[in-house]
Design a protein that fits this description.
By secondary structure, the protein is an all-alpha fold. The chain contains 15 helices and no strands. It starts with 12 loop residues before the first helix and ends in a 9-residue tail after the last helix. The chain is globular and about 55 Å long.
């Protein structure tokens, strides 16, 4: 394969196509069997299994450009913006209970995970500290690298935190509710019943592109999601449109995101991955248990169902947790707003706490 036949990502086009095809097969199988978030989890599992087992595609491991998934993430933000309730301000006035609880929840979750990684994983202080951040995946990698952490273990622990939440939360909800989430549930996305006209396409596309660009310039957290969400909400509240992205486009977004996440498992050392998996599973189980207790205590005052509050506190990816909320017809706006705050709090707490790390591990 010559350089001219490679994309700017350095990955051969036929490897990219084959990896996406593998993800599509997994997504279709999961969807046919009615599993929750079939296209997302199916593509993730298929590609992750192939990548972690050392499968070679045209002489290379499964791989896709990671940046490509960001081109579709605004779709989720636009869809969430379309689900803003008419009584949003009235509902948001009750959210301060759980928003305030997050201020306590985030550093507690961070501290417990740090103790867990140090006590059971025997990790050095810097690797344990930045791996324990319950949000801010990219920020954790950047700060940990600069501080001298074991970046490979940091990447595995942070990545597995996201993956386990993405897998466990919708599966648990599906088992408890007795029905699937996402495409397998037979549910329609908010606004899916509204015909999508040319004018609606222009408004929704504008919200996605301009929202992402503006939020990036203003340095909003999770700009690729938060910017499109805010502009889409404004467009719907002001009556510019009442339509939302079609369901098939959200399914494609799940497929692209799941395939990209799955390909990240290529190259991980198996013995270290098992250690990271055990540590991450303990961490996620502990944090979700605390989230469930918070949800049981605060569901009444907030006026949101227990599953929605668990989703709002779950240390998973903001895009994926928002997808779960959308698919279960919960308040995706409520869940997303809490995840935005969770990311900000996680980064702020990490910056404040890193000066307290023991010096003997440097």
């Amino acid at each position: 394969m010559t350089d001219r036949m490679r994309l700017t990502s350095g990955i051969a086009p036929r490897v990219i196509l084959a990896t996406y095809a593998l993800g599509a097969v997994g997504g279709v199988i999961f969807t046919v069997f009615g599993l929750p978030l079939g296209m997302l989890l199916g593509s993730l599992f298929a590609v992750a299994a192939a990548a972690s087992r050392g499968l070679r595609i045209f002489g290379a491991p499964p791989a896709v450009p990671q940046s490509w998934r960001y081109a579709l993430m605004p779709v989720i933000g636009v869809a969430i913006g379309g689900s803003f309730p008419t009584d949003f301000l009235e509902q948001a006035a009750r959210w301060w209970f759980t928003l305030a609880a997050l201020v306590i929840f985030v550093p507690v979750a961070h501290g417990l995970a740090y103790w867990l990684y140090r006590h059971f994983g025997r990790l050095d202080a810097r690797t344990a500290f930045f791996s324990a951040m319950p949000g801010g995946f990219l920020e954790a990698l950047e700060m940990g690298d600069k501080a001298g952490a074991d970046v490979a273990m940091l990447l595995m622990l942070q990545f597995l935190r996201l993956i386990l939440c993405i897998v466990l939360v919708p599966v648990a909800f599906a088992l408890v509710a007795g029905k699937g989430a996402g495409s397998s549930a037979g549910l329609e996305w908010p606004g899916a019943e509204v015909p999508l006209l040319a004018a609606d396409l222009v408004v929704l596309a504008g919200a996605g592109v301009l929202g992402w660009w503006g939020a990036h310039k203003l340095r909003f957290p999770a700009a690729v999601l938060s910017g499109p969400l805010l502009l889409s909400a404004l467009a719907h509240v002001t009556g510019l449109t009442s339509a939302t992205p079609p369901g098939w486009l959200i399914l494609i977004t799940q497929w692209i995101v799941g395939t990209a996440l799955g390909s990240r498992f290529a190259g991980f050392q198996s013995h270290r991955m098992w250690l990271a998996l055990k540590l991450s599973a303990l961490n996620v189980a502990l944090v979700l248990a605390i989230a469930a207790l918070c949800a049981l205590a605060l569901s009444g005052p907030v006026g949101e169902p227990v599953p929605a509050i668990i989703l709002a506190f779950a240390p998973g990816g903001i895009t994926e947790m928002s997808l779960v909320a959308l698919s279960l017809q919960m308040s995706a706006v409520y869940v997303t707003m809490h995840h935005l705050l969770r990311i900000v709090l996680a980064v702020v707490a990490a910056r404040l706490g890193m000066g307290l790390l023991p010096q003997e591990d440097t």
